[in-house]
């Protein structure tokens, strides 16, 4: 594959404040599940909501060029407008979800009757979670419960409006934002998950909504049941703090990234460690810097079709990995990366940086093989144990359980 190309760069529109270390850092970026919106926690207690996709010409501009003209054109066409959400606190975590259409007779603040819309949850420095209506930029409600920074947020991908929050108070909390979860006291907190001894950095719900993975400043990640909200197992294998995790689109694989410069790929059903991807310094292979930087990882994410991974590390590189290879297939130089996320329909990645910027990079475009499409379809509803129980040849079982690479 070709090396990632920088398509565009967004920069904060305010002067940077230095009274708080993270006030100018982009700790979180997010695309809405339908790909229609992009959110960016650009420091300064502000979230930018940008309608997506940008015009093709806009994405291909050099980062220095301004987009005022196309914004004016967008307004004249009557399309959605960029919004600024004033959160009042430093924003750490972001997560989108679709809000179901309101029915006649209901007084739902989020949607007009019969029209579904998007909501955005923001995790804040004071432990508050604020939930916003994306189309209008209005604050809908706040969730109270955490005692410290809400570091990460994850909505169940099935549209159930179950939200999981991860916090520096060492807990995860499960919230029900559906109409069934509403009471006179507010929105229902379904469960508090305790088990971590350190700040919880990351949480990820599997696409089939059966599992939750959480990563804290510990050498093991925790895997939870989203049905019983109990601990399934500890995933032990890293030599330093685990800081990021993500499930493959078919829920058959889980990846964890650590300060030990390794990504470990797990079978979440069995707890088996399938492979380790080591972030080796490039030395003189690519002369981006004469210095050698640590390869401590910051973020890992799967591509939408499940054949690639992206990682961001402290050695100032964005790496793209093919699922079946142990070495990266592409690199791009980026400064002080903190987070990364694929566009839901593939084709490019958004990365956030310590100086509050967001960068958009091209990624390898891939046509999935019929074999992989079949595997993905089967693994979406079959666990590893169910695959192993099928009356099929051993090699086919190995392929279906990702044990052939």
From TrEMBL:
Annotated ranges, domain SOCS box: 369-405
UniProt-listed Pfam families: SOCS_box (PF07525), WD40 (PF00400)
InterPro entries xref list: SOCS_box, SOCS_box-like_dom_sf, WD40/YVTN_repeat-like_dom_sf, WD40_PAC1, WD40_repeat_CS, WD40_repeat_dom_sf, WD40_rpt, WSB_SOCS-box_domain
Keyword set, alphabetical order: Repeat, Ubl conjugation pathway, WD repeat
Biological process, per Gene Ontology: intracellular signal transduction; protein polyubiquitination
Extent of the WD repeats: 118-142, 143-185, 193-234, 235-276, 290-324
Protein's pathway: Protein modification; protein ubiquitination
Repeat found in the keyword field: yes
UniProt cross-references to PANTHER family, sorted A to Z: WD REPEAT AND SOCS BOX-CONTAINING PROTEIN 2, WD40 REPEAT PROTEIN
Protein name: WSB2 protein
Organism classification: Eukaryota, Metazoa, Chordata, Craniata, Vertebrata
Recorded name of the encoding gene: Wsb2
């Amino acid at each position: 594959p070709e090396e990632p190309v920088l398509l565009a760069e967004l920069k904060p529109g305010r002067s940077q404040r230095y009274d708080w270390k993270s006030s100018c850092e982009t700790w979180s970026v997010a695309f809405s599940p339908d790909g229609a919106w992009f959110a960016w926690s650009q420091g300064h207690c502000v979230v930018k909501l940008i309608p997506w996709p940008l015009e093709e010409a806009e994405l291909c501009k050099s980062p220095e060029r301004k987009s005022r003209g196309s914004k004016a054109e967008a307004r004249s066409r009557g399309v959605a407008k960029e919004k600024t959400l004033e959160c009042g606190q430093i924003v750490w975590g972001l997560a989108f979800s679709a809000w179901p259409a309101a029915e006649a007779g209901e007084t739902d603040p989020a949607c007009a009757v019969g029209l579904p819309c998007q909501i955005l949850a923001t995790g804040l420095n004071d432990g508050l979670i604020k939930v916003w209506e994306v189309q209008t930029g209005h604050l809908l409600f706040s969730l109270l419960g955490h005692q410290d920074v809400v570091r990460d947020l994850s909505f169940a991908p099935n549209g159930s409006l179950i939200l999981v929050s991860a916090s520096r108070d060492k807990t995860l909390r499960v919230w029900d934002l559906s109409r069934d979860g509403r009471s006179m006291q507010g929105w229902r907190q379904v469960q508090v998950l305790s088990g971590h001894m350190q700040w919880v950095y990351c949480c990820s719900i599997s696409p089939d909504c059966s599992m939750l993975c959480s990563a804290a400043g510990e050498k093991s990640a925790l895997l939870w049941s989203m049905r019983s909200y109990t601990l399934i197992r500890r995933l032990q294998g890293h030599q330093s703090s685990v800081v990021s995790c993500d499930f493959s689109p078919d829920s058959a694989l889980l990846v964890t990234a650590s300060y030990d410069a390794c990504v470990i790929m797990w079978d979440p059903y069995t707890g088996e460690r399938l492979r380790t991807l080591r972030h080796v310094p490039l030395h003189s292979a690519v002369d981006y810097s004469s210095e050698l930087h640590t390869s401590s990882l910051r973020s890992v994410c799967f591509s939408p079709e499940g054949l690639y991974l992206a990682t961001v590390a402290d050695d100032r590189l964005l790496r793209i990995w093919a699922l079946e290879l142990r070495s990266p297939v592409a690199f791009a130089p980026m400064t002080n990366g903190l987070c990364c996320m694929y566009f839901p329909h593939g084709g490019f990645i958004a990365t956030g940086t310590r100086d509050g910027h967001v960068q958009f990079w091209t990624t390898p475009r891939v046509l999935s093989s019929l074999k992989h499409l079949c595997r993905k379809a089967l693994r979406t509803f079959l666990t590893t144990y169910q695959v192993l129980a099928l009356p099929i040849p051993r090699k086919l079982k190995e392929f279906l359980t990702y044990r052939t690479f």
